[in-house]
Amino acid sequence: MKNFTVSTPKSIKLDKKIIHSIVLELQKKLSFTIESLNINFVTSDLMIEINKKHLNHDFDTDIITFNYSGSNSNLDGEIFISITQAIDNSIKFNVNLDKELIRLIIHGILHLLGYDDQKIPDKKKMKVEEDKLTESLSKNYNNILIEYDY
User: What is the value of pTM for the model shown?
Assistant: First the structure.
């Protein structure tokens, strides 16, 4: 897929072909184009550093999305996903890790498409779309995370 990359540190090994397939399927379902999109799977340390630098928060979070475009249909942005938080979420919410990783990718894409989760009505709308897409896509993809050296 043109203008789309998946980045990881050496400690995280993912099946990047699956992630490309997920984004391609989302592109078809949600009708967007990609000017430039980078999905970064990162460690907790890096996520905390990003959080401190850009959001003035001193903690790990599961996802941070940066939208560099004014467009909600031609994506130009970056998504940062904490593998540690994804693993913690999968345990906390009793879902398999693949489903949680898919949910986080969808969550980031939805943010880039203009969805917001700051106010309760917006959060509900985003959650409905996120759940629908997660259920649809998680049936087809598994074994996304190959290896993670803590």
Answer: 0.95
